[in-house]
Amino acid sequence: MLRHLCRAAQGGRQVKAIGPKLVIATHNAGKLREIRELLSPHGIECVGAAELDLPEPEETGNTFIDNAELKAREAADLSGLPALADDSGLSVDALHGMPGIFSARWAEDADGNRDFRRAMERVWHEVEAAGEEAGHDAHFVCALSVAWPDGSIESFEGKVHGTLVWPPRGERGFGYDPMFVANGMDQTFAEIDPDQKHAISHRADAFKKLVAALG
Ligand SMILES: O=P(O)(O)OP(=O)(O)OP(=O)(O)OC[C@H]1O[C@@H](n2cnc3c(O)ncnc32)[C@H](O)[C@@H]1O
Ligand SMILES: [Mg+2]
Asked: Where, by residue number, is the active site (predicted)?
């Protein structure tokens, strides 16, 4: 049970509980919903960054883990509570891993408003421009970081591989879900039941590693 989750007491390291209250350091409602669903079997009280009026830090890192750590660190420092952050994105083989850590930024206009239909059109347009031989393979990546107020931090990364499809299909999920079909499935992440996404997603994969290490 994550409620009693303790960091491994190795070599005299202090044993530290994650709960009972955990700040979810995201301003993305879709992510927050998925993280709550993934944590619900563990009986942790989750409080969203927006509920605490925490600011959205600038994502200056060069990797998913760098950005997850800076978001978790800032939320733990400001709230005085353990904080979990998620940095994630879509990595497209034909685009040499882009949009990657820029997945949210590809959806933003000059005023910072997000439009994922436009971002998906850009991805598909660039995939087509890369030529048929470049293929349509892609994967989602999710880095999860838990930061404690005393300065310690743990990070985990998960992935799910699949194929991009066009046109986008489905109303569920968020972000790039309508154009992503996981390997072994026929429907996009926006068409399948949320429980099916939670069984195989990059976020679920990262959570499995987090629970294995800390649970
Ligand atoms: O930084 P926070 O506040 O957590 O929220 P964000 O939306 O800005 O999140 P990121 O910086 O991690 O950007 C990742 C983007 O990648 C996309 N993404 C991540 N996970 C996804 C998923 O499960 N399905 C579809 N798109 C996803 C989605 O569009 C996100 O906005
Ligand atoms: Mg972000």
From this structure: 87 (proton acceptor)
Give nearest CA residue, ligand 1 atom 13: 104
Closest listed residue to residue 65, CA positions, set 198, 180, 158: 158
Is 29 marked as a binding-site residue? yes
Taking the domains of the chain in order of start, what are their residue ranges?
2-214
List, by residue number, the catalytic residues: 87
Ligand 1 closest atom vs CA 202: 23
Distance CA 211, CA 215 (A): 5
Q: What is the CATH number of domain 2-214?
A: 3.90.950.10
Give dist(CA 67, CA 201) in Å, integer: 20
pLDDT along the chain (215 residues), means of 10: 40 48 95 93 89 95 98 97 97 98 97 96 98 97 97 97 98 98 98 97 97 85
174 is in an annotated binding site: yes
- Indicate the pTM of the whole model: 0.93
